[in-house]
Amino acid sequence: MSESFIWVNDLSYIYSYVTSDMRMLEGHIGYALGRTCEQYESDQKVDFRLSIIRLGDKRVQKNISFHDGPIASIRLIYNLPLQNKNLIK
Question: In the chain, what is the straight-line distance between the N-terminal and C-terminal CA atoms, in Å?
Fold first, then answer.
């Protein structure tokens, strides 16, 4: 069993294009800043932590840290129509 901590800030541009009444294509491109993903064994604990101050942190990180870099994604969104239109008021 392991525990993860993920922290990401990113500068990005999102573009949406409606292809029909039910579908939308969305693209996302940018640059991630300050990426952190740390994994530790679940039995390794920190005595005290306050933001950037860690007291008693003798944990051993299981994974390799990665650095800032580009990010991109494309997704297709489909909206399901409601069967009973009386529900919408």
Answer: 48
- Structure tokens, 73: 């994604």
Other CB atoms within 10 Å distance of the CB of residue 32: 16
- Which pairing describes strands 48-50 and 23-41: parallel, antiparallel, or unpaired? unpaired
The dihedrals phi and psi of 85, each to the nearest 5 degrees, come to -75, -10
Distance CA 22, CA 26 (A): 13
Query: Which stretches of 2-84 are assigned E, i.e. beta strand?
Result: 2-18, 23-41, 48-50, 53-55, 69-78
The predicted model scores a pTM of 0.51
pLDDT in tens, 26-62: 898 989 887 777 777 777 777 766 767 767 677 788 8
Instruction: DSSP letter for 87, please.
Output: G
**d(Cα 18, Cα 33) in Å, to the nearest integer?**
30
